[in-house]
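> forwarded from #structure-qc
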């Protein structure tokens, strides 16, 4: 991208030239797909339908947060509630790549149905360059199948158009600034959501533990950042492990779950360093998680592994 104004003008022109008729846009609430949706809204007006899916794998408060973000960005959108469909597709699945494949497929099938309802033949996605590079789009091995790339099944009944596919994150920031889209003050969040943070089979019970623990990690880290007790990390979250572990409350011996906390520093997510958290922050995270989920989470661990060798997400 040489010039952001030129990119903007050409992207809208190209969309109009390439696509006739109504379109749907997969809008996740992240900055990339918000920009793609705004370009489509500009190109097609009311014939562009931005769709935000509640797949049951979102963080606490996410639907409300995304609503505010789209409203601030002047993006019209519709919310699709589809938790049951996604949790059904994930039932009993352990392998992380299989989780991503099933989530990718569930998204595509849902979008196909929504496209048919609206007479649209095109699905616009906010894929950017690192998404397809990490999914093995070049000569590299597939590290992880990003749900919006490798997770797309072969027989798709909509044509996928990706107006941002050649851009990198720094160019996305320029475009966001140009289109007056506020930078989300949020950390990155993976497309497959909490499904890759419940290590092992995903079910409502494990999701609830993950969502509640994750909200506590976010609150405690954000509070410590606001109080200047630590720098803002790249990512900070909780993972529920498929491990049961003994705890004790009063006279009772309990057998609960283990939660691991991950907080990393990074520049581009290609490499990352486990952050040395102030002991008081670690302590209040552990104390709040076990107090909020009594008898259900009996142990809280801190992940001290860098990337490489570990990836940022556990799955
Ligand atoms: P890893 O875990 O590979 O993550 O070190 C690098 C960055 O990518 C995010 N991530 C994903 N984002 N779909 C996404 O859209 C995915 O399947 C996915 N997996 C990981 C991760 O949160 C981190 O920021």
């Amino acid at each position: 991208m040489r010039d952001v104004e030129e990119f903007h003008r050409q992207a809208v022109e190209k969309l109009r030239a390439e696509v006739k008729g109504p379109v749907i846009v997969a809008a996740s609430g992240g900055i990339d797909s918000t920009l793609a949706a705004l370009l489509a809204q500009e190109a097609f007006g009311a014939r562009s339908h931005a769709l935000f899916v509640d797949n049951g794998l979102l963080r606490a408060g996410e639907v409300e947060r995304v609503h505010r973000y789209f409203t601030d960005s002047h993006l019209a959108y519709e919310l699709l509630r589809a938790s049951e469909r996604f949790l059904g597709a994930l039932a009993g699945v352990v392998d992380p790549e299989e989780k991503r494949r099933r989530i990718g497929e569930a998204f595509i099938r849902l979008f196909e149905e929504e496209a048919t309802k609206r007479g649209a033949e095109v699905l616009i996605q906010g894929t950017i360059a690192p998404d397809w590079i990490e999914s093995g789009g070049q000569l590299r091995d597939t590290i992880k199948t990003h749900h919006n790339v490798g997770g797309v099944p072969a027989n798709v009944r909509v044509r996928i158009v990706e107006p941002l596919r050649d851009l990198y994150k720094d160019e996305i920031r320029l475009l966001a600034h140009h289109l007056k889209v506020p930078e989300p003050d949020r950390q990155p969040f993976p497309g497959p959501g909490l499904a890759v943070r419940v290590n092992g089979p995903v079910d409502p019970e494990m999701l609830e533990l993950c969502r509640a623990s994750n909200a506590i990690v976010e609150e405690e880290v954000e509070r410590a950042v606001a109080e200047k007790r630590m720098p803002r990390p790249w990512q900070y979250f909780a993972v529920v492990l498929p491990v049961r572990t003994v705890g004790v409350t009063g006279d009772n011996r309990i057998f609960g779950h283990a939660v691991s906390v991950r907080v990393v520093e990074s520049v581009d997510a290609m490499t990352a360093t486990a952050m040395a958290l102030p002991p008081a922050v670690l302590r209040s995270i552990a104390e709040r998680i076990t107090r909020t989920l009594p008898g259900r989470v009996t142990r809280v661990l801190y992940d001290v592994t860098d990337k490489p060798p570990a990836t940022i997400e556990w799955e």
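QC bot note: The pocket of xanthosine-5'-monophosphate is lined by residues 100, 143-144, 146-147, 188, 190-192, 235, 269, 307, 311-313 (CB under 6 Å). The chain has nine helices and nine strands.
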